Amino acid sequence: MIESISIASIATYGTEPERLQGLSQFNYFFGSNGTGKTTISRLIHDESQFPTCNVSWKGGTKLQPMVYNQEFVERNFNQPSELKGVFTLGENLVDKLAEIASAKRELDSLTSKIEGLRQSLEGGGTVEGKKKELAILDAGLKDKCWAQKQKHDAKLQGAFEGYRGSSEKFKGKILQELDSNTAILISQAELEKRAESVFGSSPVREPFVATINAANLLAHEANPILKKRVIGKEDVDIALMIKKLGNSDWVRQGRKFYEANENICPFCQQSTEESFAKSLEEYFDETFIKDSNAIDDLVNNYSIDADRIRQQISLIISTPSKFLNVEALKVEKELLEARITINNQLLAGKVKEASQVIELESIGSVIDGIKSLIDAANILVDEHNKVVDNLSTERATLTEQIWKFILEELRLDLVAYRAKKGGLDAAINSMKIQIERFTADKQKKTLEIRELERNTTSIQPTIDGINELLLSFGFQSFKLAKSESGTSYKLLRLDGSDAKTTLSEGEKTFVTFLYFFHLLKGSEADSGMTTDRIVVFDDPISSLDSDVLFIVSSLIKGLFNEIRMKKGHIKQVFILTHNVYFHKEVTFNPDRRRNAMLEETFWVVRKSNNFSKIEKHNSNPIKTSYELLWAEVKRSDRSNLTIQNTLRRIIENYFKILGGIDPDKIGEMFEGKEKLICKSLFSWVNDGSHFAHDDLYISVDDSTVENYLKVFKKIFEKSDHLAHYRMMMGDAFEESSNDPVIADAEPAKANHSGVAA
Predict the structure, then answer these.
(1) Predicted TM-score (pTM) of this structure
(2) Integer Cα distance of 232 and 247 in angstroms
């Protein structure tokens, strides 16, 4: 059974597909000639010829399409060859027929199993299907993967090259990496930092940060002169006094003034003997002078070496490497400056008082901190330069590490995806295996049925059936006969001559239809008559008179009943026509109320701007003018003015023409006030057919219209035609049945124009 059809880019259909959704057992299409109906029948007959179109079969099971259209007529009657025989099952072979029926039930069971599995696999109706579940699962993972791409694209996009433009490709790459990525996991911050140089503009080599050599400066801290008490010679006669006073530094400083004052004591201004001058000179001997010079040299060298280190660090800070922690270096430099200042002060004190023992503030830890910062920067510089020297390898490594990071962020989602996908894949594979097994069994069963059919078929029942119908409808000048081959037919006149080339259009169309009608229950080969099939009737009554139109309609409706009772092998019917009368006849169903039944669909095919359009309708769109009159009565928004003429035409058509009852006699069926209302209604109706009123000036109010509509209904009740009223009003009849009948309403008085006052 066909569930839906999509038509595009063929014949008069445009590139935008026309979709026929929700097809049912019986599908009615109405449209003028040339609107595109035959294209539908051609598509159903052989969808493979129309690659831009699609026919969707229930459960994926394609049935045999049997199409009656002008091409069928051409193939069978406009060719010189004889008609192919229609093989049907012999009804007298009871055992064989039962065997075929049993095999057919087994075949149908296999078909049902296949369709059920396909529905569980592909989905359909309310069933989602395992493939759709898998598609939804894949789509969910795709969205989550793409969200990661969006999140990290700004800084890590270099690793995503080739996958940034497609969420499907990105998801595929994630799954590929899941199976193969062995990179180590690195933090996001580190990845982004490396990506800046590896994936940024073409990187260049960076110079190393200059190292500092503070060995000389550090060596000064261990100079022995710092801990040596520099004093004069102790075996000189004044040494005892100086030692006792503990003021050799004071004496040393005063000696300079003593010598400058020509051996007169600068403190007491007394002349001294030469022996005193000699004692001073002996006390401050060469050793003392040497040590004093050593202190002076230390102070000078310390200052020079400290200035050199300061300059080196300042140069590094003024032209910093991008890999150097400059702020940390500045802090270390300030600490170094502070300690050098302190040491300079200590050294100045040593110069002034050489006999003092001092210890310089160590700058070793500060120098170590500075060297550590420089070494750390140079490690990064070295790594960077290696990247520059081997960029392609570094990019590949970083790319793999970035994908590893993305995998880690998606780890829980990927675990859940793999688990659910594994279950779905197993279910899908199992269903495919079962479908393959049942399909193989179905093919074997089909061959078995065909072999049984070959032993029980004959073309004679079709000859008898068609000839019987031809005679019953007055076609007595020709008949169908078996050809000499015994497997085909020929058309003969009563005198035995060939009738095929001399048939009128009507005769040819009718006999072709009868041939097709019998073919529906048989086969052109000696097997295949029990194959399930769908049927298309495309304008089967183009050249038939009204009598034959009725017969063709009756035969087709007989097929409908067989399908409803699940007899035979026809599962679905399509009717396409431009004939209003045929459409009305073949679609008539007394069980239908207002809207289409579940077993049927209604469609209208029309052209708009030279392109075919197909519209679905909830009810039969083709109505007679008489039905349209009743449709106006049923409308809740009916015009109070035009309803006059509508009621008149209904009464005139039904009671006078259809019912054979004179409208003037209707009033005699009422008594009392109802009789007056009825007469008033006919007065109103008769007037309404002859005068055109303007709603702006003359209008009947709603209450008056309702009163007359209720009396209108009672006219059908009184005349025993309520069944017709019920049929024509449909659901509106049930609503009107709940309204109280006006029994005591005052009759409306007619004015001079006949319009109810």
Answers:
(1) 0.48
(2) 11
